[in-house]
Amino acid sequence: MTYKRKDGRKNDEFRPIKAKVGVVPNADGSAMYQSGETIAIAAVYGPRKMHPQHQQNPEKGTLRCTYNMLSFSVQDRIRPGLSRRSTEISKITEWALEPVLMLEKFPNMVVDVFINIIQADAGTRCAGINAASMALAHAGIPMKNLVSSISAGKMDKTIVLDLDKYEDSEFEEGEGSTDIPISMTPDGKITHFQLDGKINSTQLKEVIDMVQKACKEIYEIQKKALKDSIEDKEWQTNIVKH
Ligand code: CDP
User: Fold this and answer.
1) d(Cα 213, Cα 96) in Å, to the nearest integer?
2) Would you say the pTM of this structure is higher than 0.90?
3) From the CA of 78, how far away is ligand 1's center (Å)?
4) Quick one: pLDDT at residue 196?
5) Residue 115: DSSP 8-state
6) Where are the alpha helices (DSSP H) in the chain?
7) Which residues of the chain have pLDDT under 70?
8) Closest ligand 1 atom to 163 CA
9) Alpha carbon nearest to ligand 1 atom 14, residue
């Protein structure tokens, strides 16, 4: 069977993306990342002294991510508060972003990243990582690079990019669906990879190539959003000055 996407996308096409930096004025850095119906907002606070003190690391700073899916972000209301899923995604987000952060520059300090999913249609961990990466840069946290993230997967035997909720959780024909979220730097270094399902090595290579190409485009979108935020700020300063 050849899989045909319900929304008419090509197999290697991602959903429409919107990115904006500086969406939470009280935070040190913030960003919104939208992919189709999935919307993530990330707010960064810090670096600030780590409390309680026994959690301070004198060798390097700590990145602390908190992923949260709002109750009304999905069809069935989600019970507020921590869950096994949110704890796992928070940890994964930290691991995806840590390799690009120069944490050694702020020992004993912590950088908090709060990620809120306000609308979910699959791919929320990737949207959260993309938003968090922009928000960290916006907060001026020393970074070697940005991280871009998207998932690809297998619908029966067909490889597709950026699965939506139907593709991720409802499709059951043939071999069913396998979702593979991946995060990487613009030079192609993978910082996060998850695979829950079956896939052979040829198909996996196809997935990684597809994600690599998409991440390059996402990186350009993230970079543009950051640049636009600087231009916005200058414009606002001018208004205040005159
Ligand atoms: O969101 P992501 O693909 O990173 O993670 P997932 O655990 O594979 O969840 C896939 C999708 O299922 C989410 O994006 C939501 O749309 C939906 N979901 C839900 O409706 N209720 C939940 N408690 C968890 C997920």
Assistant:
1) 18
2) yes
3) 11
4) 84
5) E
6) 84-97, 124-138, 165, 201-241
7) 1, 233-242
8) 3
9) 122
